[in-house]
């Protein structure tokens, strides 16, 4: 579908938050496959699929993570598929048990199983753990809401002098998975949805990385995904930056 053309099917939170025909087709295909093999499981998909199951497990699906990149023909988009135990809508209490992030443009595939480690293209992963904050390459992302983006810009401006540099690729699943491979030392972002990170956080934690969630009053959860040694210093730096530039009501 990407080679043929990209048709915008709808918008969501704003005019810049798009859904393509490929998003809908990808989710429909995933629904068909999962229903055939695991009809007893629940499903939570970004594009509206929501089904309760009776197994205690839920498939959490992002049919295209990084849809704007996909729309523009950039390579930073992925399909993210995970299975979680617990409430699939609450990233702070669920437990991902299996996950896969696939990047169609490059063919790379990250996989993980709870207690079974994680890998990329079959190569076992072990996230680096010794980077100092001042040497850390940190990923982030921004909201589709213009006022929220303005506040996020203030926060990242305060954080930037404390780290090596900041990257913004536009696909949360790929940015989080990059922490497991050492292509980023950390990634933090406000407002990541369950389907954005369900698979990637398992890839990271099974590689020895860390995930923490900061609840910012009036704004929501900031996901902080890091190498083990960066968890405390980066979290402290983000909290300090937010305290210095609190969200405006």
TrEMBL record:
<keyword id="KW-0479">Metal-binding</keyword>
<feature type="binding site">
    <location>
        <position position="64"/>
    </location>
    <ligand>
        <name>Mg(2+)</name>
    </ligand>
</feature>
<dbReference type="GO" id="GO:0008934">
    <property type="term" value="F:inositol monophosphate 1-phosphatase activity"/>
</dbReference>
<dbReference type="GO" id="GO:0007165">
    <property type="term" value="P:signal transduction"/>
</dbReference>
<protein>
    <recommendedName>
        <fullName>inositol-phosphate phosphatase</fullName>
        <ecNumber>3.1.3.25</ecNumber>
    </recommendedName>
</protein>
<dbReference type="InterPro" id="IPR020583">
    <property type="entry name" value="Inositol_monoP_metal-BS"/>
</dbReference>
<dbReference type="GO" id="GO:0046854">
    <property type="term" value="P:phosphatidylinositol phosphate biosynthetic process"/>
</dbReference>
<dbReference type="GO" id="GO:0046872">
    <property type="term" value="F:metal ion binding"/>
</dbReference>
<feature type="binding site">
    <location>
        <position position="62"/>
    </location>
    <ligand>
        <name>Mg(2+)</name>
    </ligand>
</feature>
<feature type="binding site">
    <location>
        <position position="65"/>
    </location>
    <ligand>
        <name>Mg(2+)</name>
    </ligand>
</feature>
<dbReference type="InterPro" id="IPR020550">
    <property type="entry name" value="Inositol_monophosphatase_CS"/>
</dbReference>
<feature type="binding site">
    <location>
        <position position="46"/>
    </location>
    <ligand>
        <name>Mg(2+)</name>
    </ligand>
</feature>
<keyword id="KW-0378">Hydrolase</keyword>
<dbReference type="Pfam" id="PF00459">
    <property type="entry name" value="Inositol_P"/>
</dbReference>
<dbReference type="GO" id="GO:0006020">
    <property type="term" value="P:inositol metabolic process"/>
</dbReference>
<feature type="binding site">
    <location>
        <position position="196"/>
    </location>
    <ligand>
        <name>Mg(2+)</name>
    </ligand>
</feature>
<keyword id="KW-0460">Magnesium</keyword>
<dbReference type="InterPro" id="IPR000760">
    <property type="entry name" value="Inositol_monophosphatase-like"/>
</dbReference>
């Amino acid at each position: 579908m990407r080679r043929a053309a990209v048709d915008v099917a709808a918008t969501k939170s704003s005019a810049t938050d798009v859904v393509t025909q490929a998003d809908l087709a990808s989710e429909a295909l995933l629904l068909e496959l999962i229903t055939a093999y695991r009809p007893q499981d629940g499903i939570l998909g970004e594009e509206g699929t929501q089904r309760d199951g009776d197994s205690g497990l839920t498939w959490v699906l992002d049919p295209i993570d990084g849809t704007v990149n996909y729309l523009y023909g950039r390579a930073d988009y992925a399909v993210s598929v995970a299975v979680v135990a617990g409430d699939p809508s609450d990233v702070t209490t669920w437990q991902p048990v299996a996950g896969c992030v696939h990047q169609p443009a490059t063919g790379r595939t990250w996989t993980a199983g709870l207690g079974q480690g994680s890998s990329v293209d079959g190569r076992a992963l072990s996230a680096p753990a010794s980077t100092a904050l001042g040497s850390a390459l940190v990923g982030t992302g921004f909201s589709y809401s213009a006022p929220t983006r303005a506040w996020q810009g203030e926060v990242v401006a305060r954080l930037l002098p404390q780290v090596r540099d900041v990257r913004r690729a536009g696909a949360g699943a790929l940015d989080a998975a990059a922490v497991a491979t050492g292509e980023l030392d950390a990634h933090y972002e406000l407002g990541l949805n369950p389907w954005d990170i369900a698979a990637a956080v398992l890839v990271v934690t099974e590689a020895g990385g860390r995930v923490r969630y900061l609840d910012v009053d009036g704004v929501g959860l900031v996901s902080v995904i890091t190498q083990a040694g960066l968890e405390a210093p980066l979290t402290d730096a983000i909290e300090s930056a937010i305290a210095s530039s609190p969200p405006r009501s």
